[in-house]
TrEMBL record, chain A:
Pfam families (UniProt xref): Glyco_transf_43
Compositional bias segments (type: Basic residues): 466-481
Species of origin: Gossypium darwinii (Darwin's cotton)
Subcellular location: Golgi apparatus membrane
Lineage: Eukaryota, Viridiplantae, Streptophyta, Embryophyta, Tracheophyta
Membrane topology reported for the UniProt record: Single-pass type II membrane protein
Keywords: Cell wall biogenesis/degradation, Glycoprotein, Glycosyltransferase, Golgi apparatus, Membrane, Signal-anchor, Transferase, Transmembrane, Transmembrane helix
Recorded superkingdom: Eukaryota
Protein's name in the database: Glycosyltransferases
Automatic annotation (TrEMBL), chain B:
Keywords linked to the UniProt accession: Glycosyltransferase, Golgi apparatus, Signal, Signal-anchor, Transferase, Transmembrane
Domain of life: Eukaryota
GO CC term (a single one): Golgi membrane
This protein's record includes keyword Transferase: yes
Family: Belongs to the glycosyltransferase 47 family.
Membrane topology summary: Single-pass type II membrane protein
Location(s), subcellular: Golgi apparatus membrane
Protein species of origin: Gossypium davidsonii (Davidson's cotton)
GO terms assigned for molecular function: glycosyltransferase activity
Name this polypeptide is given: Exostosin GT47 domain-containing protein
Transmembrane intervals: none
Predominant place of localization: Golgi
Domain Exostosin GT47: 45-340
Signal sequence interval, chain numbering: 1-21
């Protein structure tokens, strides 16, 4: 603090008087130049010299032992305390000598336990924090933060009901782990409805069981098809299935659709608490834009406003819902992915489901709900977009400061349809060796590398290219084998050495 | 029929009560040993007469050094300004209950900005000689109905070193007057019975300008910034803060729950708002502006100063708001703080969140209702009516005008 710095330099000013203060000062103050005082002066000087030799001030020790000066009012400490300096790290018994009853004719007797003068610095022998206490402190911090959230955060937070369609595939672990961790961080009550295509499987169940959340895991009889169009349709049906569960169990809260490939921000969950009946947020669209036609992009850019990779509500000046902003798919026209295995861009739908939230009461059979909500039992066919759930799209509430804040991101990354992965990502039996460790005579192994049997995740073509490259380099090396032999020996020995180190 | 009427009245009353409670659900009313007095209005309960002293006692001193307006002893200047324009001021000394002497005794500053107390006793003495000769009110009671603002390190002992201050004691001619001071320690020579302890001056605008959103989570457990060893005056430690600050450092410098250091961060105020506990240990004197800062920023003050008397101790229940740790218990500070139940901590935070608590610690310009100026007046009003025994018979003298060190008797 600035003030403490000031204090520091201020006291620097008084260091002159301070160093010589103490009994000397008090005894020389006033008109007390008695021979006794002179004697004390001399004795003090002597003890100062001795202190220089010994290394600590023991003049006060001497004074205490000999007598107490009648002019000096401050009581002294016990000699044990005085003898201890910083170097001696021990617990000092805490009883300074107080309440010295000295006769003071002109001062009121001070019954203070607090003594002026030098005190020991108390240091406990075991300096490390007690782990139980550290945990208590963390619990206190959590409790204080919960209270802060209650007071200054969202008032009366409602339960969040998350509907996620999923199915077992290579990328499922990646996606579901992301969603799961986001949901575990949500500070509100949560129910997670996981609808799985192809029926309930142990794979998904074991993955989501690690979350500790309240989960309703249901299966959907159809399997996931291979074309994106079909997939979107099936996912819509799965979401409706999830909504039917909300209706059956009469869950009360806010329903949000979290596709397992999306990424959510924590502010999303705070923002959706503001939804009254049917809200919409802006979704960032991260379409993999490889292979789009660059010239087309530039031309468009000159004519219209720059495209934003965002889908969501658009407001007019008075912050009322004026329309919808959707992701411009024209640059991708004709080049989007149709099947899972296509290398082209995967495009989102016009309006993604994940950008909409609804009050669960809209789904209940009875109860007071606005008349613009369609009954979900009557919708069995294809629903193109979530706006088909309502009769009048203008009732949708724009959230996230009228769609200006993007609170979640859409991304679709999937592996090939035939890609394999170890069940539950546990490797059993052990994998084949791709790079042998030391002592395997490397140049003598046959040219075929056992890399084909490696579990391939993702696209296989680059892997094949890689193996051909090594094959050619190896063949080159084989011709120079004789020269290399000594070199490799040295290399392996060097390798050994590093391993031993 | 009548039963229903009373039932309805009862329900309506309960409804109104609950609404009133809803408006302030997260703060609690503060009532100290003097009762629920923080929001009392002193206007009409007392009258203060302000002596007209020559400007060499106040204005000229301030002109010589305007730094006096912003250091932590500035309360004496702002109190004078407040009283000049306050409704409690009276121009008729006959009807006054209290008499105020506007003298800026801490305004003799070193080049680095700290007050030198050496001339203060002579200044005060000369002022009192002036008022006792020009007005009859001093001699009437020998100062028992006069009050002085002495915000020095050790109050009216007028010295910055504790040993010298104890030795001097309170200035003999001020023994009967009421002293309004920042220093407070029980059973200490420099604190008279009946003195009013006030907080040190902290600039209110600076603190209000650095507020962060209230929903920023408090993530620091214990926070402190300041010296642990005063290397200029006490390098080995043991004198400064009676070894308490050094003990805090040695015991907790490696403890991750304790955010303590000697740095001067620019985010000091912001960090305090993110901390749950703020240490307020003694330094060379037991009081410090840290207490004011902790209260304003909602950080629970941990007071490590034996026998300290905190500001407005009869109006504010400090035991319920802060945590008191004895200096000998400093090595167990982490045990003490973690063993406080969370409900108690939340209650303390609610008490601190009470706006009247924060207002009572500040000296805003212009004065606001419930601020420290009004608390001082409340304290003075609580001491009324004066006992008959303070009025001396004509010719009677109690104070010894020649007591004290010889240097004090010289004219100023």
């Amino acid at each position: 603090m600035k003030l403490s710095a000031l204090q520091q330099s201020y006291l620097g000013r008084r260091s002159n008087s301070f160093r010589s203060s103490g009994p000397l000062d008090s005894s020389s103050d006033g008109a007390f130049k008695s021979p006794a005082a002179v004697f004390w002066l001399v004795l003090h000087g002597l003890s100062c010299l001795i202190s220089l030799l010994l290394g600590f001030r023991f003049s006060r020790l001497v004074f205490l032992l000999l007598s107490t000066s009648s002019t000096y009012t401050s009581p002294f400490h016990s000699p044990t305390e005085l003898a201890k300096t910083l170097d001696i790290r021990s617990v000092i018994p805490a009883d300074p000598v107080g309440n010295v009853p000295l006769p003071f004719p002109n001062k009121t007797a001070t019954n203070s336990r607090v003594v002026v003068g030098r005190h020991g610095i108390r240091i406990r022998p075991w300096p490390h924090p007690n782990p139980v206490e550290v945990m208590k402190a963390h619990r206190i911090i959590e409790r204080v933060q919960t209270e802060q959230r209650l007071q200054f955060g969202v008032k009366d937070p409602r339960k969040i009901i998350v509907v996620t369609p999923t199915y077992v595939r290579t990328f499922q672990s990646l996606h579901l782990t992301g969603v799961m961790h986001s949901l575990m961080l949500v500070p509100y009550d949560l129910v997670w409805i996981v609808v799985e295509a192809g029926g309930v499987s142990n794979e998904t169940a074991s993955l989501i069981a690690k979350s500790g959340l309240r989960i309703i895991h249901v299966g959907f009889s159809q399997r996931m098809p291979n074309s994106w169009d079909e997939r979107h349709k099936l996912e819509t049906k799965m979401r409706l299935r999830g909504l039917r569960i909300v209706r059956e169990k009469i869950l009360d809260g806010i329903v949000i659709f979290s596709d397992d490939s999306n990424m959510h921000s924590m502010e999303l969950f705070d923002e959706i608490q503001n939804a009254k009946w049917f809200g919409a947020v802006s979704v960032g669209i991260l379409a993999n834009s490889a292979n789009i036609d660059e010239t087309v992009v530039e031309k468009r850019g000159e004519e219209e406003n720059p495209r934003m990779p965002v889908q969501g509500p658009a407001c007019n000046v008075s912050n009322m819902l004026a329309g919808w902003h959707t992701f411009n798919t024209l640059p991708f026209a004709g080049k989007s992915a149709v099947y899972i295995d296509d290398r082209a861009t995967v495009l989102p739908r016009k309006l993604e489901w994940s950008g909409f939230v609804l009050n669960s009461r809209l789904l209940w059979k009875d109860g007071d709900k606005p008349e613009w909500m369609k009954d979900i039992d009557t919708l069995d066919g294809d629903i193109e977009s979530p706006l088909d759930l309502v009769k009048d799209p203008s009732v949708v509430e724009p959230l996230g400061s009228c769609g200006r804040r993007v609170l979640l991101w859409w991304l679709r990354v999937e592996a090939r349809a035939d890609s394999k992965f170890p069940p539950r990502w546990i490797i059993d039996p052990p994998l084949e060796v791709t790079v042998p460790s030391k002592r395997t005579p490397w140049p003598d192994t046959p040219p075929e590398l056992p890399s084909h049997k490696k579990p391939v995740i993702g696209i296989q073509e680059p892997i094949i290219k890689h193996t051909t490259k090594t094959r050619t380099s190896r063949s080159k090396r084989r011709s120079k084998r004789k020269h290399d032999e000594t070199r490799t020996d040295r290399r392996t020995t060097g390798f050994d050495k590093t391993l031993q180190n | 029929m009548r039963k229903w009427f009373w039932g309805f009245l009862f329900i309506a009353f309960g409804f109104v009560c609950s609404i009133a409670a809803e408006r302030n659900p997260r703060t609690e009313r503060i009532s100290g040993s003097a009762g629920d007095v923080l929001e009392d209005d002193p206007v009409g309960r007392l009258k203060v007469y302000v002596y007209e002293l020559p400007s060499k006692y106040n204005k000229k001193i301030l002109q010589k050094d305007p730094r006096c307006l912003s250091h932590m002893f500035a309360a004496e200047i702002y109190m004078h300004r407040f009283l000049l324009s306050s409704p409690v001021r009276t121009l008729n000394p006959e009807e006054a209950d209290w008499f105020y002497t506007p003298i800026y005794a801490t305004c003799d500053l070193t080049p680095t900005g700290l007050p030198l107390p050496f001339k203060s006793p002579r200044m005060v003495r000369s002022a009192i000689q002036l008022i006792s000769s020009s007005w009859p009110y001093w001699n009437r009671t020998e100062g028992a109905d006069h009050f002085f603002v002495v915000p020095h390190d050790f109050g009216a002992c007028f010295h910055y070193q504790e040993e010298k201050a104890i030795e001097r004691g309170i200035l003999p001619i001020l023994q009967r007057a009421t002293l309004v001071q920042t220093f407070g320690q029980r059973n200490h020579v420099c604190l008279n019975e009946g003195s009013i302890t006030i907080p040190p001056y902290a600039p209110p605008q600076k603190m209000q300008a650095r507020q962060i959103p209230l929903d920023t989570p408090r993530s620091i457990f214990v926070y402190f910034r300041g010296l642990f060893y005063d290397v200029n005056n006490d390098p080995e430690g043991g004198y400064y803060a009676r070894g308490a600050r050094a003990a805090v450092w040695e015991n907790f410098k490696n403890n991750p729950l304790f955010d303590i250091s000697t740095e001067h961060p620019t985010t000091y105020y912001e960090d305090m708002q993110r901390a749950i506990f703020c240490l307020c240990p003694l330094g060379w004197a037991p009081w410090s502006p840290r207490l004011v800062e902790a209260v304003v920023f909602g950080c629970i003050p941990v007071i490590i100063a034996d026998d300290i008397v905190l500001p407005f101790a009869d109006a504010i229940p400090w035991e319920e708001i802060g945590v008191f740790v004895a200096e000998e218990d400093v090595p167990k500070l982490d045990t003490i703080l973690t063993s406080i139940p969370p409900e108690v901590i939340l209650r303390k935070q609610r008490l601190l969140a009470n706006p009247s608590m924060k207002r009572a610690m500040l000296f805003p310009q212009p004065a606001l209702p419930g601020d420290a100026f009004h608390q001082i007046l409340n304290g003075l009003a609580r001491k009324l009516p004066h006992q008959k025994s303070i009025y001396l018979k004509p010719g009677e003298k109690i104070l010894n005008w020649t007591a004290g060190p010889v240097g004090d008797l010289k004219p100023w």
